[in-house]
Amino acid sequence: MEGIINWNELWKVMRSSSPWRRTLDEPAGSFWDGRAKQFNESTMQNRERAEKQIAKIKLAPEYSVLDVGAGTGRLAIPIAKCVKSVTAIDPSRGMLACLKENMEKERVENITYLNKRWEDIELGVDIEQHDVVIASHSLAMLDIQDALAKMDATAKKCVYLFTFAGRWMDGGLWEKIYGEKRSSWSDYIYLCNILHDMGIYANVEIWDSEFEQHYVGLDEAVAKLKETYDLPSEKEEILRAHLSKTLVEYNGALCLKRKSKSAMIWWQTNTHEEA
Ligand SMILES: C[S@@+](CC[C@H](N)C(=O)[O-])C[C@H]1O[C@@H](n2cnc3c(N)ncnc32)[C@H](O)[C@@H]1O
């Protein structure tokens, strides 16, 4: 199919017209700096999601693992307990500060980190090859083909990408906010097609995932999700109306269950044909 659709150009269009386009214009990492603490708290409530992801990655005690966009170390920290060393790359100082705190709490010492965007990392200068490269919900690069090619060149054995299949917001909210037609730029299908055009015939696994979040009241839920989804103020009432119907009482708090489809794309390096 190469040539009929230029998937990398399509990704660029989708990415730069997405609700998160401003992350391309702002200084690297600043978007996540302000969200790091909240992200850290909420992912700590959902540790089994990380365990599920890690169980799908082939690891061994002698391996070196590179985590692109490692964030707070949600995956890097448990992975570090199973392998020789982990390198965490992230442009957000706020996320890396949480990673450092989490490392201290969990007494993990075999993670080194680099405060850079993946685009600015030079193989052979900033980093050496690693056995395994992972990137989980961090594929925010504009030129994703370039980013994937660098991951492929960096991994001695395997690359694992985690993203969503379809829409990642909870049921019905996406349509209410953006209208029916807009699809999510982070959908796994773009990545599969871009890799295919690169001569990388990757494996794909899709599964149902659930994310549970607790709030003291409706106002807190609205404020936190407005920030998480980066919604403009004019959409706040849509979010409030949606949450007032979907939040359920649980142990004196309000609980939100977000359902989505997770996707893992993985391939062994050095086994594919030249594109
Ligand atoms: C949603 S968080 C995911 C963090 C972690 N991988 C996880 O699964 O919990 C996205 C992370 O990707 C990082 N990120 C965004 N753009 C990046 C880029 N161009 N290069 C490397 N990391 C990036 C952000 O700073 C943020 O920490």
Short description:
With 275 residues, the chain is α/β, with parallel strands linked by helices. It has one domain (7-212, 261-268): Vaccinia Virus protein VP39 (Rossmann fold, 3-Layer(aba) Sandwich), CATH 3.40.50.
How would you sum up this structure, described in words?
The structure is a single chain. This protein is of the alpha/beta class and 275 residues long. The protein has one domain: Rossmann fold (3-Layer(aba) Sandwich). The protein is built from twelve helices and eight strands. The mean pLDDT is 90. Bound molecules: S-adenosylmethionine.
* Ligands present: S-adenosylmethionine
CATH architecture assignment name: 3-Layer(aba) Sandwich
**Which structural class is indicated by helix and strand composition?**
alpha/beta
> Which CATH class?
Alpha Beta
What is the CATH topology classification name?
Answer: Rossmann fold
**Main sheet attributes: strand count, strand direction, barrel closure:** 8 strands, mixed
Uncertain parts: none
Looking at this structure, what is the CATH superfamily?
Vaccinia Virus protein VP39
From the alpha carbons, calculate the radius of gyration and give it in angstroms: 19 Å
Order of helices and strands: HHHHHEHEHEEHEHHEHHEE
Overall mean confidence score, pLDDT: 90
Multimeric organization: single chain
Count of beta strands: 8
Strand content: 15-25%
Number of contiguous helices: 12
Overall tally of structural domains: 1
